[in-house]
Amino acid sequence: MSKPEKQSAPQAVRLDKWLWAARFYKTRSLCKDAIDGGKVSYNGSKGKASRNVEVGALVGIRLGWDEKVVEVKAVSEQRRGAPEAQLLYEETAASIAKREKRALENKSFGGRIMSDHKPNKKERRDIKQLKKDIFSDI
User: Fold this and answer.
1) Taking Cα atoms as reference points, which of 63, 85, 83 lies closest to residue 74?
2) In 3D, which of 27, 51, 31 has the Cα closest to residue 39?
């Protein structure tokens, strides 16, 4: 008697497991915290950790100052090496262009703008307004 062959039917994988398997975050708890914190969107709407990932879906991920929009190419619930993890997704062309544009803007400002003093009330308001302007288009 031979063993039954495994079927290659599409499997249901949770969003937090997929993000972990695709190596965007080191642990599943970090994935869940990022999703609950609003840093991950799924097809343009707020992501939920328990949502099943489908091939062709667009996942928006905010990592630090960078925002990536990736298209799901394959699903996996096992974390493997980085070369295999990169086969699970592909970053969209618009996302790449936006990240490159933002990197050029940061370079033109000379990286970080350092100050020799603590910001006063007016400067704090200006910083808050600048952050609001930057992240309003995300």
Assistant:
1) 85
2) 31
